[in-house]
Design brief:
Elements lengths: L18 E5 L5 H14 L4 E5 L8 H5 L5 E4 L13 H24 L4 E5 L1 H6 L5 H10 L5 E5 L5 H6 L2 E4 L20
Parallel strand pairs: 1-5, 1-6, 2-3, 2-4, 4-5
Length: 188
Amino acid sequence: MKSNYITSANSNNQNLGLIHIYCGDGKGKTTAATGLAIRMAGAGYRILIARFLKNEASSELNILKTIPGINVIETFRDFGFIWNMSKSEKEEAAAFYTRLLTDAMQTASNDNYNMLILDEINVAIDLKLVPEELMIQFVKKKPAHLELVLTGRNPRPALLELADYVSEIHSVKHPFEKGICSRIGIEE
């Protein structure tokens, strides 16, 4: 029986960069993207990671920064929760995150990266901290070889339509419901 799957040994698609979205209300979107980055690095590819709406305290950064082929754009900027921001703080955050996205897209394209991970970009777009149209235009015009990974809740319908992979992670149960806060090495 002939398989419908194309193996890497006989594939002509090795230089075809596809679009992944990890979304939903469950834990594991960043973890999935991180695992994919490690797999790509293990195959000798170059990965660029830009993180939105997160501080630099996430534990996975400690190891990602040591893996050859993986580069993380460090932001060192934390605006806090959007619902606590004034109008001017929201405008400042929007300018910052839009610049971060622009820098990440240019770096990934100009420096010949094989994968670009935009962690929590869906949330940044949903909160109007990054223009949706900027992201859509990049998705449509990205380098053909560039694998693009977008994470976060509430991806825009236009991005879902453009994606090749969409994995929605649903929360069925979470320790927070029992009053257990995030733990270093698990959620942080």
